[in-house]
Amino acid sequence: MIRPKLEFLSSETVDRAIDEAYDLLWNLGVRVHYDQALQFLAEAGATVDMASRVAKIPRALVEKAVETVPSSFYLYDFNGEPVVHYGGDDIHFDPGSAAIEIADYGTNESRVPVTADCERFVRLAEMLPQIDALATSIVCGDVPPSMADWYRLYLLLLCGRKPIVTGTFAIETFSIMHELLVVSAGSAKALVEKPRAIFDACPSPPLLWSDITCANLIDCARTGVPAELVSMPLMGATGPATVIGSAVQHTAECLSGITIHQLAKPGSPIVWGGSPASFDMRTGTTPMGAIATMMLDCTYAQIGKAIKPGGLPTHAYLGMADTKIVDAQTGLESASGAILGALAGVNMMSGPGMMDFESCFSLEKLVIDAEIVGMAKRLVAGVDDSEEPLALNVMREVGHAGNFLKSKHTRRHFRKEDYIPTEVIDRDFRQTWFDKGALDINARAHRRAQQLIAAYEPLSLAEDVVRELEAIATRYAQAAGLDKLPERTLR
Amino acid sequence: MSEELFKQMAQSVIDGDDEEAAALAQQGLDQGIGPLEAINKGFTAGMDVVGELYSTGEYFLPDLILGGEAMKAALAALDPALKASGQTREVLGNVVLGTVKGDIHEIGKSLVGSMLSANGFEVYDLGTNVEAEEFVTKAHEHKADIVALSALLTTTMLHQRDVIEHLAEAGLRERVKVMVGGSPVTQAWADEIGADGFAEDAARAVAVAKRLMAA
Questions:
Q1: Using 50, 70 and 90 to split pLDDT, how confident is the model at B95?
Q2: Where are the domains of chain B?
Q3: Smallest CA–CA separation between A294 and chain B, in Å?
Q4: What ipTM does the predicted assembly reach?
């Protein structure tokens, strides 16, 4: 059976792109705004100019770092089951991350989300079987900004079971988030053995590592928490205007990140990921739903898989749309990204639920995207040709009578042979559709979201764990100037 | 004769060709054309066409920015002669622009800078990760009419408030208008921190800056 696979580059072009990235790292260098990382690089043989904070990294040093990166690893759910496999061509989806707005059903407006929105989001994401992992997707506006990053994780740990894709907004908050994860896992050792969460680290294009991202990479490596590189050249704005040019920049940024990360602790898990985009030359926006954005994602994933034998684990922001409401464009863009990324074998795709250039979340979109994810997963499972003969037996059995519904062969296969959608996807006869209220997809998705949120069963966390999480959150909230945490709707 | 040269000057801006623009500026000076005349009849006319083509959707941001760069190259070539002549170019206002402390995001801020330059403002771009004190110093030094503050992150956006407070402490707040922008920035935030203007994108930033200058 063939796994359908999308590749944009010849192996020669992949090699050329990688060679050019190495050339950039040595001859142009990367800017590193963090002394400790510069020190690591200098000690390991990079040429570092402390004044301009530019590190020129020799190829041998980078290659050595790439060699020690694991080609695959797992993320585990609350029960300790390995549910996300970063590696090979396995695909998974998690909701898009860090929305500072939420779009309510039935309005054209967006607003700043609060704690109750984040809790509704977690319940829904937990209940959608197509979505493999949670993400800290909702930035709550009812807490001070300085605690907004760890507070999202805190809420997820209280009511979520799935693995978590997350990240910090500051250097200091990593240790808070790590503390929360350790309490949830039972011990620091348990968290290392079965990592529940992965942290995104975003270089700034072109070729710049800020203090936050460097510190995060080093902290992740040292604590055994997997890291995910999110390199994001914007074509023609903060990176070359061509897909291949921005893929070279992406390669150089990821390679330098891997070097810093592996110097902190060789063998630590890290993902070749990104959130690059085309650049809309009319408006100056960064369209996540542009076809070139998706081509760039697939292209860099191909490079990441080729950079060492066995490849590197991959990630991309795909399955997103740039609309402000859920409409046909939303579906067009989200489905294109999810399906192309699935064909390219991107291990983790972050995007479902996200709109408006990665800034606004919609629960209805998440529900619709789950159907897209179901279809994308079915697509890459390919055409099963394992039966021998392929069709002769069943064709002979049914013969010219022609009713395959009666065949045991049908019953044996139909459940898996196509993805069976929920009622979010309209497959009704017209009159039935009309009788059910003539609902469009947005209305059907809204209805399903309400049903799933209501059907969610709270996580039965041990009481002492809940108390400890609350104590940590209360302590750091007070340090951030918030006397009392917002009321939770789920208890 | 000089009509033809003015046309070529305009065309160099329309083509976004900075080398050509600088060469034509020099050629004009050599032919005895006054620097102000070259600017007004030649290069600015070209910039107007660029702006028009952008608004009708035929031109895109790179055309606009390269047009601005060509304009800048011409002005640089003409500057010594302009100073010597004692004349001054008409500018809509002086803008001190930068991305606030802790934030290294360049592109949105630079886009605003290009658009403001292209529309007749004198822009002093301080770059990224700019301390509040630096904004105050430069606003003073360049006699800024407007200080424009960019931030891409919810966490760094808070520093926009610091700059406004520093301007007030330095006694500059009465004389200087403050504009804020960036992905997480909203009108509500601008109101909360007492900024004078907010714009969602670079094109709107120009309109806001013009409005603030008229106020």
A1: very high
A2: 2-85, 94-214
A3: 21
A4: 0.85
Residues 6+ apart with CB under 8 A from A288: A275, A277, A317, A320, A321, A322, A333, A337, A351, A354, A357, A358
Distance between CA atoms of A417 and A403, rounded to whole angstroms?
A: 18
Q: Is residue A434 part of a domain?
A: no
Cross-chain residue pair A282–B60, CB shorter than 8 Å: yes
> In chain B, which residue's Cα lies nearest the Cα of A205?
B105
Q: Say which CATH number the domain at A144 has.
A: 3.20.20.480
Domain interval for residue A209: 67-381
- Domain membership of residue A433 (yes or no) is no
* Any B CB within 8 A of A52 CB: no
The pLDDT value recorded for residue A491 is 60
Question: Mutation test of the interface with chain B: which of A32, A52, A100, choosing the one with the most B Cβ atoms within 10 A?
Answer: A100
Give the residue on A whose Cα is nearest the Cα of B63. Answer: A281
Q: What backbone phi and psi angles, to 5 degrees, belong to A364?
A: -65, -40
User: Cβ of A204 under 8 Å from any chain B Cβ?
Assistant: yes
Q: Which residues contact A265 (CB under 8 A, 6 or more apart)?
A: A221, A222
* B153: closest chain A residue by CA: A169
- The two three-digit tokens of residue B198, written as one number: 């907010």
Contact A162, A77 (CB under 8 A): yes
Q: Which residue of A has its CA nearest to B129?
A: A210
How would residue B155 be classed by pLDDT, with cut points 50, 70 and 90?
confident
Residue of A145, A281, A284 with shortest CB distance to B154: A145
Q: How far is A470 from chain B (nearest CA, A)?
A: 24
Best mutation target, B50, B54, B61, B187, to test chain A (most A CBs within 10 A): B61
**Separation of alpha carbons A289 and A69, rounded Å:** 31
Q: Measured between CA atoms, how close is B40 to chain A, in angstroms?
A: 27
Q: pLDDT at residue A350 above 80?
A: yes
Given CATH 1.10.1240.10, say whether it is the number of domain B2-85.
yes
Q: What is the pLDDT of residues A407-463, one digit of tens each?
A: 999 999 999 999 999 999 999 999 999 999 999 999 999 999 999 999 999 998 999
8 A C-beta contact, residue A366 and residue A353: yes
A238 → chain B, closest CA residue: B107
Q: Which helix (H) or strand (E) holds A84?
A: strand A82-86
Q: Which residues of B touch A237 (CB under 8 A)?
A: 107
How many Å apart are CA A184 and CA B149, to the nearest integer? 41
* pLDDT tens by residue, A40-77: 999 999 999 999 999 999 999 999 999 999 999 999 99
CATH number assigned to the domain with residue range B94-214, chosen from the 4 options 1.10.10.60, 3.40.50.280, 3.40.50.300, 3.30.43.10: 3.40.50.280
Instruction: Note whether B61 contacts A282, CB cutoff 8 Å.
Output: yes
Report yes or no on A469 lying in a domain: no
Contact flag A282-B154 (C-beta cutoff 8 Å)? no
Of B61, B183, B202, the CB nearest to A359: B183
> Is residue A149 a contact partner of residue A176, using CB atoms and an 8 Å limit?
no
d(CA B136, CA B148): 12
Q: Which of A102, A281, A288 to mutate to test the interface with B (most CBs of B within 10 A)?
A: A281
pLDDT of residue B88: 87
Parallel, antiparallel, or unpaired: how do β-strands A360-361 and A354-355 relate? antiparallel
Q: Give chain A's domain count.
A: 1
**DSSP characters over A212-260:** HHHHHHHHHHHHT--EEE-B--BBTTTB-SSHHHHHHHHHHHHHHHHHH
pLDDT digits 0-9 by tens, B26-55: 999 999 999 999 999 999 999 999 988 988
| Nearest beta carbon to residue B107 from set A146, A170, A238 | A238
